[in-house]
Every structure is written in structure tokens, then in C-alpha cells.
Write a structure and sequence with these properties.
This protein is mostly helical. It is built from eleven helices and no strands. The chain has one domain. It starts with a helix and ends in an 8-residue tail after the last helix.
Length: 207
């Protein structure tokens, strides 16, 4: 199986878990949890494809991503799985953080790759914007559907980590080539997110 396909599957699973957990926290039913997991997993990619004029979006062409997101969401809705997570609070919180960080890193660089392959390899701004949108778009839709302020506006170093990772990936694209630049960009994002969560890094807020 192609490495980029595997990366998208892993990112889909990671974001579906983060979306499903938010739905469970909001006491949604199984349909609501599934939709939230699905939206988190494929929402950013759909927005990316529409901006790049890739129609229909990949999420509709290849249903594997949508089906994977729904199945993962249903798995986390199972009472025994939920009970285990709720009982082990630290595991629960760590799972959310790690899955969200991994999903952000993978989807951001996949978005950069989509922009590069669409012929915008010389447009750093567009490649960065599309990468970040792919990474945070699903989370924004998730939070709006859940009735929350979007995570990227109030929480730790999040969208900025995506921007730095997207820049890293785009700037090293020609020198390192596809796979190494994507791995480097994704690694930057995951490391920055975990460090930000540990050290409570935040941007200045209005008083």
C-alpha cells in the first residue's frame, strides 16, 4: 500500500478518535458521535480539495476514509471502551492529546503535498494555507458542531505548530524531496504540540 495512503488512514483514525471523544463528552448519541468523528476526520480534506479545485473531494471518491472514521467512532462509543477511558482519566487525556497531535501533523503535511502536486510548489503561502486548513479544518467543524469555541482560538500552541510544520515541509520539499520533508514537517508539529501541552505554551490573550 502506498505510504501516503497509509499516512492518510492513520490521520483519519487519529482525528476520528478525537472527534468521537468530544461527542461522548457532550453526551451525544451514537449517530452524533459518528458524525463528529467523521467530520473531524474528513472535514479539513474536503475544504482543501475544494480550494484546490479537486472535485469531487477525495473523501467522496474513496469511501475508505469516511467508513474508517465512522467505524472508529462507533468503536469508541462502545460502553466498555468508554468505561475504560473514563476510569483511567490520565490515559483518556493523553489519548486525546496524542491522537489530535498525530492527526494534525499528518494532515498538515498531506495538505502541503496536495498543493505541491496541484502545481503550486512555488507558492509558499498557498501551500502553507492549504496544509494548515487540512490540519485544523476538521477540528474547527467539530468544535462548531459540538457548540464550543474552536480549539485553535483558545488552547495551547496549536495552529501555530501546524503553520511551522507546513513551512518546514514546503521549504524543504525540493531539497529533501517528498517523503523526508513530510516526515520532518509532521514530526515538528507533533513535538511542538506535545511540548506546548507539557509546558503550557500559549499565545497572548486579550485581558
Amino acid at each position: 500500500m502506498h505510504i501516503f495512503y497509509i499516512l492518510e488512514i492513520v490521520g483519519t483514525i487519529a482525528f476520528a478518535i478525537s472527534g468521537a471523544i468530544v461527542g461522548i463528552q457532550k453526551k451525544m448519541d451514537i449517530f452524533g458521535v459518528s458524525i463528529l468523528g467523521l467530520t473531524t476526520a474528513v472535514g479539513g480534506g474536503i475544504l482543501r480539495d475544494l480550494i484546490l479545485n479537486i472535485t469531487p473531494p477525495a473523501a467522496f471518491v474513496d469511501p475508505v476514509f469516511a467508513v474508517t472514521a465512522i467505524l472508529v467512532s462507533i468503536l469508541f462509543f462502545i460502553p466498555s471502551v468508554r468505561a475504560t477511558l473514563e476510569y483511567r482519566k490520565k490515559l483518556y487525556d493523553m489519548l486525546i492529546l496524542v491522537m489530535d497531535s498525530v492527526g494534525l501533523g499528518l494532515f498538515t503535511v498531506v495538505g502541503v503535498r496536495a498543493a505541491m502536486n496541484a502545481g503550486f510548489d512555488s507558492n509558499l503561502f498557498l501551500a502553507t494555507f492549504v496544509g494548515v486548513l487540512t490540519g485544523v479544518g476538521g477540528g474547527i467543524l467539530r468544535d462548531i458542531f459540538a457548540g464550543d469555541m474552536p480549539y485553535i482560538f483558545i488552547k495551547h500552541f496549536y495552529a501555530c505548530a501546524s503553520i511551522i510544520g507546513a513551512w518546514t515541509c514546503a521549504l524543504t520539499w525540493r531539497s529533501l524531496h517528498e517523503v523526508p520533508s513530510m516526515i520532518l514537517g509532521a514530526a515538528f508539529i507533533v513535538i511542538l504540540r506535545l511540548l506546548a501541552a507539557h509546558f503550557r505554551w500559549s499565545l497572548p490573550k486579550a485581558k
